[in-house]
Specification:
Elements lengths: L1 H24 L6 H24 L1
C-alpha cells in the first residue's frame, strides 16, 4: 500500500510539473491557484459527462 501511495504521489507531481511547464512555455501567467481551479473544474466536468449518462 505504501508503494502504491508513493507511486500515485509521484504521478500527480509529474502531471503538476508538466502543466506548470506548459504554463511557463506558453506564457499564460496563470498562478498555481488558478491552474488548480481550471484542472479541478475540467475533472469535474469530465466526471459529469461520464457519470450522468450512466445513471440517467
Amino acid at each position: 500500500m505504501k508503494k502504491f501511495l508513493y507511486a500515485m504521489i509521484e504521478y500527480v507531481a509529474k502531471i503538476h510539473n508538466y502543466i506548470m511547464g506548459l504554463n511557463d512555455k506558453y506564457e499564460y501567467d496563470f498562478s498555481d491557484k488558478q491552474l488548480h481551479f481550471l484542472v479541478i473544474g475540467a475533472i469535474g466536468m469530465l466526471l459529469i459527462f461520464i457519470v450522468y449518462p450512466l445513471i440517467k
